[in-house]
Amino acid sequence: MKKSNITExxxxxxxxxxxxxxxxxxxNKKLSQDTKAKIQKVIEELNYVPxxxxxxxxxxxxxxxxxxxxxxxSIENSLASVISFFSNIFKYVIPLMxxxxxxxxxxxxxxxxxxxxxxxIKGLCSSNLLDGIMLxxxxxxxxxxxxxxxxxxxxVCFGHTNIKGVDNYIATEHEHSVYKAVNCLLKEDVKDxxxxxxxxxxxxxxxxxxxxxKAFKDKxxxxxxxxxxxxNFSSQDSLVGEFKNVLINSEELIGFIxxxxxxxxxxxxxxxxxxxxxxxxxxxxxxxxxVSEMSERYYSYINTPSKQLGENAFYILQSEMxxxxxxxxxxxxxxxxxxxxxxxxxxxxx
Length: 350
Fold this sequence. Notes:
alpha/beta; Rossmann fold; six-stranded parallel beta sheet; 12 strands; elongated
């Protein structure tokens, strides 16, 4: 449904846009009761929702604060999330915020009832305490996106969304990167490729799964669903037991595509089963950010395009807030580079 605007309200009510604006911003002492009633009736008929950002401009008010909402994240796990994925993106966002005199407020949703958190965010928006919002770790049919759309409040999403009419997002093409990772292992003659994505409702997990299955299909190979680990797990559950079962029952060289958050659990399973990385297992990590030259040489990994994601998210949010962005091409989607270091120590038979 097309959104109505202030011009349509004014035209149907038979008044000027200035009169409607004064009514919306409570500058209506000089307006008659009939005029107020007429405007209110038209607003209800057209289901018109005034833009909060426009009202801020008319009131010449800006909090110079951006809210960073980290969804699906308990308060005890929010710090770990920020330090890993989010910190690697925000090290490119924060300088741009500071350069433009913005402060930021990090808001994990704390596993409270979703309605409670949505109402809290709506309150921050309606009270002019925030100028815009960055949504991290978005979910399918995201409540925050739906409510912010209704409020016409400026926001940008980190990740794809299946909600129609939302193009203010930035995202990594995860299908593409996982597809490349699977093909990389297949070229190493590894057919037993184990992967891990949780049963969380994140759109990202569906993209991982799609890329994984497409790579096998394009090679004319069947997908063994038992190779998809953690189907009944949450991201906080340990996979050591599943890793051990796979390692114990595998005689051939096998591959894993797992997030960096699970690499310590894999190493624990390798130690307990006396298996070796590269000799018995080829490993590709995603959501991985090398912290040293050694770790960069040791692992193969999917390198998240943090700089492009962070900078473009800020520019998109600025545009949503009505800030003119000059001479800058803004992108939404980015591919992730596969950094390969898969040399196997296993000697092949002649």
